[in-house]
């Protein structure tokens, strides 16, 4: 040990294999070794937790599903009401503008020669000409609106809807009935003057 070491009050470095260094490890003076990390364990659901989750989901479905079905039904009925009213409004405006007789009726196909009055959910044609009865011969096709597979739509007259050049539908007026799932959802009333009004009956029976 030299004088400088004594003055500074420090001990000289200990060799790696010095007996004192080995003793330091035995008496706990050496730095602790790094702790071993435990392996990650993935925890799953227990049977009780799974059953509780299923029960909660079942309650939510029973509460939400009927409301969702009613929402879808209302949208389908609203779409059909808009389709019928659009077709009739186009026909009436065309009759007034062209000063011609304009007819609206459902058809089984675009090139059909006659109207299919039993099902107004079929495609709707707007034609120009004074067709006789349900025949579409000697008429000019102006517009066709696609059909749907939605609610059942009927008209309480056994004739097409025909607008005069004045926009009136005298003699061809009537009421549309829109049904979905055996329930009467809406009525569309066509007056002699060619005007429309909608009546909602969400809980009435179609029969």
Automatic annotation (TrEMBL):
The record, for InterPro entries, names: N_methyl_site, Pilin-like, T2SS_GspH
Predominant place of localization: membrane
Q: Name one GO biological process term.
A: protein secretion by the type II secretion system
| Alphabetized SUPFAM superfamilies for the sequence | Pili subunits (SSF54523)
Q: Does the keyword Cytoplasm apply?
A: no
> General secretion pathway GspH domain location, by residue?
81-190
- Family per UniProt? Belongs to the GSP H family.
Can you say what this protein is called?
Type II secretion system protein H
Q: Which organism is it from?
A: Halomonas urumqiensis
């Amino acid at each position: 040990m030299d004088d400088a070491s004594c003055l500074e009050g420090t001990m000289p470095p200990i060799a790696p294999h010095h007996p004192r260094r080995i003793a330091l490890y035995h008496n706990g003076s050496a730095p602790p070794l790094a702790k071993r990390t435990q392996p990650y364990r993935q925890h799953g659901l227990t049977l009780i937790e799974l059953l509780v989750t299923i029960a909660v989901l079942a309650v939510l479905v029973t509460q939400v599903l009927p409301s969702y079905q009613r929402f879808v039904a209302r949208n389908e009925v609203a779409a059909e009401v808009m389709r019928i009213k659009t077709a009739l409004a186009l026909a009436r405006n065309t009759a007034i503008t062209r000063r011609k007789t304009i007819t609206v009726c459902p058809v089984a196909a675009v090139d059909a020669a006659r109207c299919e009055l039993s099902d107004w959910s079929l495609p709707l044609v707007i034609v120009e000409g004074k067709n006789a009865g349900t025949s579409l011969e000697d008429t000019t096709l102006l517009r066709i609106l696609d059909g749907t597979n939605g609610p059942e739509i009927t008209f309480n007259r056994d004739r097409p809807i025909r607008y005069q050049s004045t926009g009136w539908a005298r003699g061809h007026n009537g009421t549309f009935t829109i049904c979905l799932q055996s329930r009467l959802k809406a009525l569309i009333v066509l007056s002699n003057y060619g005007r429309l009004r909608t009546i909602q009956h969400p809980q009435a029976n179609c029969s």
